[in-house]
């Protein structure tokens, strides 16, 4: 392992040099979206200024060049998550659309009234609502695996919740509220004993630690570009080829067809069967640039550095009287949700903002989890490899100042 050159890394992100309300920006909202390195910004500019043309549909030079970029990006994603084939990589508009795609297509082919879907108590709305929609449409039952007081999944209850009507399990890899790192490999192993496929929401994990879909053996995995230093509006769906072959198309239109007549349409091969319309080939190329940038730094080194930040921030925060942290899992990633007695999260977030410190406040698109925790919302600080202990010190000073204001 090598020590990260944080000053050099921070220089790669132009937005980190700006000021907010006359104060240097301290950005601790990385679980919502990450900032973009200059190489990603430059890639977007180069795509629009050198190869802008529709992909897959033209014989001219620009179209071929854009197509090459787009398909090279697919291979970059394949390599990053260690998929067996580029055919297993589907580009979408984000993790949310990826989950909706699987929910719609899977339930249409494999679920009948009375069947069950299993999720967990710590899911983001994006891994709750799509399944609820299918439950309403097909008469399915949604079951929820509970958590313990530390914010960890009750895996001891998992197999008892699986029945002969369970059709799929969907679980987040890392909670966007608690930071809990779930043992997805164990969940997949248990599910596969009953021939049940598993979808993993990796929107909060691929940017923090290595993810190998073949080692995990998951059937589906989703993540978003904008949370791993890439552009917004691009997402990834990984699916084992046998499952993607078995699922019907999610949307219809150009690109996903083999041939069309007024009597019948036949569909394209994988992965194009699930990619109707013009893809965001500029965004996919920029995502590939982001993945290469992260890989050049090294995910193992990123993981170690961010773990050190998490430990330092946790220790400093717990020194503040009246502050409590929600989520104390043994295996935890770069997210801290906290509350301070007598101070509403919105007030805390607003006042920190005036000090140039960006945190998240509210339910973090996880209202059921908030009810489970017995709170309306939290303040959330989430870290990236460009954050520093000095920034954490500013956060601590800011919270202490706000506490004094309310006392």
Write the layout of secondary structure elements.
Layout: H1 6-11, E1 19-20, E2 23-24, E3 26-27, H2 38-50, H3 61-81, E4 89-92, H4 95-110, E5 116-120, H5 129-138, E6 141-145, H6 158-161, E7 166-172, H7 184-192, E8 198-201, H8 213-216, E9 220-224, E10 235-239, H9 241-246, E11 257-260, E12 265-267, H10 281-297, H11 299-318, E13 323-326, E14 335-340, H12 345-354, E15 357-358, E16 360-362, H13 367-373, E17 378-382, H14 389-406
Can I get a quick summary?
By secondary structure, this protein is an alpha/beta fold. It has helices spanning 6-11, 38-50, 61-81, 95-110, 129-138, 158-161, 184-192, 213-216, 241-246, 281-297, 299-318, 345-354, 367-373, 389-406; strands at 19-20, 23-24, 26-27, 89-92, 116-120, 141-145, 166-172, 198-201, 220-224, 235-239, 257-260, 265-267, 323-326, 335-340, 357-358, 360-362, 378-382. The termini are far apart.
Question: What proportion strand?
Answer: 15-25%
CATH superfamily of the largest domain: Type I PLP-dependent aspartate aminotransferase-like (Major domain)
Specify the overall morphology: globular
Structural class: alpha/beta
Largest sheet: 7 strands, mixed
How far from one another are the termini?
45 Å
- State the helix count: 14
Strand order of the largest sheet: 4-10-9-8-7-5-6
**CATH level 1 name of the largest domain:** Alpha Beta
Low-confidence stretches: none
CATH architectural grouping of the largest domain = 3-Layer(aba) Sandwich
User: What do we call the CATH topology of the largest domain?
Assistant: Aspartate Aminotransferase, domain 2
Provide the helix percentage: 25-40%
Number of strands: 17
Compute the CA-based radius of gyration. Answer: 22 Å
Tally of domains: 2
Would you tell me the overall average pLDDT?
95
């Amino acid at each position: 392992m090598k020590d990260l050159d944080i000053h050099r890394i921070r220089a790669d992100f132009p937005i980190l040099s700006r000021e907010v309300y006359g104060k240097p920006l301290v950005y601790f909202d990385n679980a919502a979206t990450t900032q973009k390195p200059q190489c990603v910004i430059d890639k977007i500019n180069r795509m629009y200024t050198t190869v802008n043309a529709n992909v897959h549909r033209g014989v001219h030079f620009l179209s071929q060049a854009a197509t090459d970029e787009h398909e090279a990006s697919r291979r970059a994603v394949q390599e990053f998550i260690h998929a067996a084939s580029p055919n297993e990589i589907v580009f979408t508009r984000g993790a949310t659309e990826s989950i909706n795609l699987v929910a719609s297509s899977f339930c249409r082919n494999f679920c009948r009234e009375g069947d069950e879907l299993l999720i967990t108590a710590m899911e983001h709305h994006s891994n709750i609502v799509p399944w609820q929609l299918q439950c309403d449409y097909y008469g399915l039952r949604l079951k929820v695996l509970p958590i313990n007081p530390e914010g960890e999944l009750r895996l001891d209850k998992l197999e008892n919740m699986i029945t002969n009507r369970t059709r799929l399990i969907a679980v987040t890899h890392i909670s966007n509220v608690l930071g809990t790192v779930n043992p997805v490999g164990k969940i997949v192993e248990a599910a596969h004993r009953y021939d049940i496929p598993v979808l993993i929401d990796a929107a909060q994990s691929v940017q923090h630690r290595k993810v190998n879909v073949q080692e995990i053996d998951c059937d589906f995995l989703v993540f978003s570009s904008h949370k791993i230093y890439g552009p917004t509006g691009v997402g990834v769906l990984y699916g084992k080829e046998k499952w993607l072959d078995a699922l019907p198309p999610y949307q219809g239109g150009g690109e996903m067809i083999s041939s069309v007549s007024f009597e019948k349409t036949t569909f394209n091969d994988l992965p194009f069967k699930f990619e109707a319309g013009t893809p965001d080939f500029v965004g996919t190329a920029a995502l590939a640039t982001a993945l290469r940038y992260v890989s050049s730094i090294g995910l193992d080194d990123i993981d170690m550095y961010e773990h050190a930040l998490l430990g330092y921030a946790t220790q400093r925060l717990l020194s503040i009287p009246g502050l409590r942290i929600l989520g104390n899992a043994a295996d935890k990633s770069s997210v801290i949700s906290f509350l301070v007695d007598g101070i509403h999260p919105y007030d805390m977030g607003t006042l920190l903002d005036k000090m140039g410190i960006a945190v998240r406040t509210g339910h973090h698109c996880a209202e059921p989890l908030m009810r489970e925790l017995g709170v309306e919302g939290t303040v959330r600080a989430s870290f990236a490899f460009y954050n520093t202990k000095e920034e954490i010190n500013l956060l601590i000073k800011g919270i202490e100042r706000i506490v004094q204001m309310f006392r």
